[in-house]
Design brief:
By secondary structure, the protein is mainly α. It has helices at 2-14, 23-26, 49-58, 72-82, 112-120, 129-158, 164-194. It is elongated and about 120 Å long.
Amino acid sequence: PVAALGASTRRAEALPAACRCSGAEVGRNEDDPDDPKNWRVPLPGRKPGAQILAEMEADQPQVPNLPRGRDQAAEKHSLQARFQFCGGNAMPKGAMGYVEPCGELPKVIESMRGRMEERQARDENGMNAEQREIFEELMLAVKRKQERLREIDEEDAADNKPGKAKTARNKEALELRNDIDRNLADIDRLLELAG
């Protein structure tokens, strides 16, 4: 350790004079106020009462000079008086009991119950309105498909050559026949349910 001490003093002597400083110059016993390591925040505590009173006297709150606002009580009273006996225009005319005279009476709309009873009423076939609509739709579909089948048969009669077009027509005709059979089965089932 003595040898190490000697080496460090030799190194210090090798430094230029501007870099070497002694402990007295820096003030090692004193804290440097510019060094952030030495900055200290005072602990929170209570202010003395005299200081609080002095601050309150210095900052006396002032009453602001504001423009005068609405007198809501007077406004409310005037509105109540104006609309007390249906004399106001705030509501639509019909809400106040006023009805404009007109030449004819308004048309009466059927009640929902009346419409439901009408739809549930059965005709001579035993079908209600919903079943009649389904029956008519199925009959129209069968009629359209039969007309298309006739057109395909006419095209086949005109063109007897085998080919892709004839195969496509035969395929379409087969699908139409199957659809017609399915629709006729649905019609039979509907008539069973109605009868």
